Amino acid sequence: MNSFSVPDAAIRLNQASSKDREAFGQMFDSFAGQTDTLTVEQAKLAVQSVIPDISPQMLSRLSNEYGRTVSRSQFEQFMTRVFLDAQPANEIRRAFQLIDVNKTGTITASQLQDAMESFGDRPDIAETEAMIHEAAHTFPDKVTIDELISFLLSEDD
């Protein structure tokens, strides 16, 4: 990854869009039939039907975290995590939209600092300015969503 890392909590959102949650609910219903829970094995099949290459470690979380059965809300919560893990750019976009309170399409070091502080990190302004400076290409003091995605998902050489 790049030389700076945003805390996991700063880019992890605990819910997907309403459209995504609706799709997760429909998936739950199609596997659950007339019951209000899925077995862990049914839940694993449901997840694999959407993301066939999901890691075994992620699948093992189902039984580790929920036991032998999974409720609809637990399934939606789990699928949100899987969905966001599988599509980090979407997760970054959602976080960016929350940080960009003025809806300018850019975020400043101050906005990034505020967001990181809300998740328990305490960077000083010099740190967030350095992060913005490293990620930004269009403006010297703010970063666009595409620049941030590129920066956060890039690999250092």
TrEMBL record:
UniProt cross-references to InterPro entries, sorted A to Z: EF-hand-dom_pair, EF_hand_dom
Q: Boundaries of each EF-hand domain copy?
A: 87-122
Gene3D superfamilies recorded for this chain?
EF-hand
CDD domains from the entry? EFh
Q: Which GO terms describe its molecular function?
A: calcium ion binding
Protein name, please? EF-hand domain-containing protein
Give the originating organism.
Answer: Mortierella isabellina (Filamentous fungus)
